[in-house]
Specification:
Structural class: alpha+beta
Largest sheet: 5 strands, mixed, barrel
Number of strands: 5
Helix content: 25-40%
Oligomer: single chain
Strand content: 25-35%
Length: 114
């Protein structure tokens, strides 16, 4: 139990030390935590570091950001869409914005693609 608490403390210290995201590689992996901790601790840090909030996104625009399978995605007004390659086939996949945590991977946008 003590080791788990120390790991959680180090993780929070790391997140508190984050600075502005310059590239998608600067965005850390979002840990799996309970909803309250995610919304009250992690989301504010993502926003402080330059992640674009949902209400600032423009439908049809492509954004640079990060999720497990993509570094660019198009906002459709509800979710992001991106081209995914899996088992030899390309297809369009959808993923939630980081403010809409659904327990799966999330896209963290940091700028519009030029």
């Amino acid at each position: 139990e003590q080791i788990k608490l120390e790991r959680q403390q180090r993780l929070k210290e790391y997140w508190n030390s984050l600075t502005k995201f310059e590239t998608e590689d600067d965005i850390p992996v979002i840990p799996i935590v309970d909803k309250e901790e995610y919304e009250n601790f992690y989301v504010p840090i993502l926003l402080r570091c330059g992640a674009i909030p949902k209400d600032k996104l423009v439908v049809g625009k492509t954004y640079v950001g990060n999720c497990r399978n993509a570094c660019t995605a198009v906002w459709n007004g509800t979710q992001f869409e991106y081209e995914r390659y899996k088992f030899g086939t390309y297809y369009t996949d959808k993923i939630n914005h980081f403010q809409d945590d659904d327990g799966y991977d999330l896209f963290v946008p940091i700028k519009e693609e030029e």
